Amino acid sequence: MTEDPNRKEEVLNRPADAATIESLCEAGRLGPAACEAAQGWLRASRPWWDWVSRSLLFVGAALVLSGVVFFFAYNWARMSPVLKFVLIEVGLLACVVAAWLTGLERIVGKVLLLGAGLLVGVLLAVYGQTYQTGADAYELFVGWAVLIAGWVLISRFAAFWLMWLVLVHLGVILYRVQILTHEERWPEILMFLVLGLLDLAAVAAREIGAKRGAAWLAHRWPGWVMLAAALVFLTIPTSLLVLVDEYQHPVTVLAAATWVVAVGAGYWFFRYRARDLLSLTLCALSVFAVVVTWIGKGVFGALEEVWSACLLFGFAVLAVSSGLGYWLLRTWRAMARQPHG
Amino acid sequence: MADRPMTLGDVLERLRAEGLLDAQGADGIAEELRLSREAPSAPWFVKVLFALGACVAAASFFVFLACAGLFPESAGALLVMGLVLVAGAAALRFVSGHVSVAQLSLAVSVFGAQLALAVSVAGHAMALVGAAGVVEGPWRDMPARVALASLILCLVLYPLHRDTLHRFLSCLLVAVATTAWLLASQQYHMLHVLVLLEAAAIAVCFTCWRLPQAFRPMAYALACGLPLTVLLVVLVNSAVLRDALWFWEETVETPAWPSSAVLALWLIWLYLWAAGGVARWRQEPVLVAVIVTVALGAFTSPGILAGAGLLVLGFGRRDSRLLGLGLAFFPVFLVLYYYNLDLDLATKSYVLAGSGGILLVVRALLGWRPWAREGAS
Predict the structure, then answer these.
(1) Are A66 and B352 in contact (CB under 8 A)?
(2) Which CA distances in Å does B217 have to A178, A264, B91, B130, B159?
(3) Do A329 and B46 lie within an 8 Å CB cutoff?
(4) With an 8 Å Cβ cutoff, is B233 touching chain A?
(5) Is the CB of B352 less than 8 angstroms away from the CB of A64?
(6) CA-nearest residue of chain A to B270?
């Protein structure tokens, strides 16, 4: 095997972690003194204060905002509506001004803007509580999402984007529950399809943003969360189409077709472009769910004896999970051998 | 160095500079790292897929045996049959692991390991059901026998069934079975002893580099088991949740403070490990962390300390799995703590906003300390 200096360089540029150093120690590559020293340096090199500071900021802000929500949820009878609105609007204004003064490039500014976004929801809730507008709950979430969309756009903050997506999801789900109250099955499939497409669009936006060098999108975890959500929303109708005859409807077929396209595009993108094994595994888990459902329906429908169906189904499940696992392992090894572009 | 994480290259370079490694050794390590990167073992999320497949298949095999009338009548025979399956699975894993490396392909190795795992899970289920009923007695004694049987199986199989996923699941089963036994036998106070054992084992496994890598699956199983045990301690003390979750009449409460004390000491020990040793206890950041931890132990739930401990370990080791566990459990315990406060909504809002405000003030004050401004480690 020929040595490639670039590959060695790539390996050495990986961040050090305790497990790798421990494996070198166990293999006898490093002596006891070297192991002790390397572990100490590794711990000392961690940016502890940055981490603690961020944690205190996030937990502290979350608690304060929860306190504000609880305070107005108490529905004070002795407090006049004007005072309630003044309190919320002053808080909202203070958050926006403080975010502006701090600057959205700093994490404190981003958290302040997120706080302002949350206070908009509190304001809408208190408005509905005071004037008994008779509006459906979905309107609150949709209105809230629309009102803060501008702030979300300029925030460059993944947590704010996720909060916004959650609001939109709640709006869509409540619209299905409160407005599309048909006896038929297709509205709930339509809801899954809309939510799945929304999450896929968010995944695509994150990938494009990250590709264009947006530093705040460098972390992969928001993409994983959104991809997992998209696949869940598309896997459910696809499995239902396979399993339950009542779901044979053009909307379900469209959702299943979207699932096929999403998984196919996901394979191509995360295998050849973004090279992300966790995203590929999420796609594989989704395929596993659909294929196992299909096999289960076929096996239990075809065989009258439950025991024989169970045995066959067990081996089929093992074959599918082994096949997908084998494919993932091979893909990972192939990706590891390819130099990063 | 402060702006980018320490790389493996940095570590090797510094070891060479300090005379702890020669040039030849550094080259050998770099080559070994390159080779291990090109043939990596399955990451945890692929193992989730394996575990899912094996558990669904095991359930199917279990139902197959029951429906085909292959289940023995007596509990003793069921226990023996389960043990035979478990032994067969270990042998299958041994054969597929050894044969495939030399002669067969990766696909056979993966399928063999999967089949061995599924058979072992089904065998465990049969053996535990058999163990539960092998001796006549009240139903409350059954969980004790199940816990004991799972412990014996784990101790015997850990060195024999050399599959990290099997080892992880086997240890997790012991932790869950022991917790279930303590709950069923209403030995709520013993939950604190279990918390102590799990916390101590986690600390040893993740902070002692001399421990062989073979113990790593056990360490991760305990890292999953600890927050679950603490969650039960919290639930036992939560009147609302206890009424919903506990089915038997007698309710024996156990105070949360023993677990809080154990976990506060555990967390302090982790701070000292992170700081570089017990001798560093006088450093201001360590002292501040200790004071905050003592306050958390005195006034909040043990779960918050457990979540914080996993976060510290995960961050210090640069281990995303431990960090993920901490991030998953910390908010749960935080919500449970405030949910369980016996206060009206208005007072709760003051407590929430007040405690959040304290955290923000603490952050602002500490941010002015010289060690914080230097980005102290």
Answers:
(1) yes
(2) 48, 34, 20, 27, 12
(3) yes
(4) no
(5) yes
(6) A43
DSSP B104-168: S-HHHHHHHHHHHHHHHHHHHHHHHHHHHHSS-S-GGGHHHHHHHHHHHHHHHHHHHS--HHHHH
Residuewise pLDDT in 10s, chain B (377 residues): 446 788 989 999 999 999 888 888 888 888 888 877 776 778 899 999 999 999 999 999 988 988 888 888 888 888 999 999 999 999 998 887 666 554 557 777 888 889 999 999 999 999 999 998 877 666 677 889 999 999 999 999 999 988 899 999 999 999 999 998 988 888 888 999 999 999 999 999 999 888 888 999 999 999 999 999 999 888 877 765 566 665 555 565 788 899 999 999 999 999 999 988 888 888 899 999 999 999 999 988 899 999 999 999 999 999 999 999 999 999 999 999 998 888 888 899 999 999 999 999 999 999 988 888 776 44
Q: What is the pTM of this model?
A: 0.90
B273 interaction partners in chain A (CB closer than 8 Å)? 43
Q: Give the residue carrying structure tokens 């106070």.
A: B189
- Whether ipTM tops 0.85, in short, is yes
A287: nearest CA in chain B? B49
Nearest to A278 among B45, B53, B358 (CB): B45
Residue A333: its chain B contacts at CB < 8 A? 38-40
Does any CB of chain A come closer than 8 Å to the CB of residue B339?
A: no
Choose from B4, B22, B45 for mutation: most chain A CBs within 10 A.
B45
Largest pairwise CA distance in chain A: 81
Domains in chain A: boundaries: 70-181, 187-341
Dihedral sign from CA coordinates of B83, B88, B91, B92: negative
Q: B15 near A37, Cβ under 8 Å?
A: yes
Which residues in chain B are contacts of A39 at CB distance < 8 A? 209
Give the best residue of A4, A9, A48, A75 to mutate against chain B (max B CB count within 10 A): A48
- Number of residues that this document lists for chain A: 341
Query: Is B49 in the A-facing interface, judged by CB distances under 8 Å?
Result: yes
Q: Any CB–CB contact under 8 A between B68 and chain A?
A: yes
Q: Two tokens at B91?
A: 């042998």
Instruction: Give the other-Cβ count within 10 Å of A140's Cβ.
Output: 20
Between residues 64 and 93 of chain A, which touch chain B (CB distance below 8 Å)? 64-71, 73-74, 76
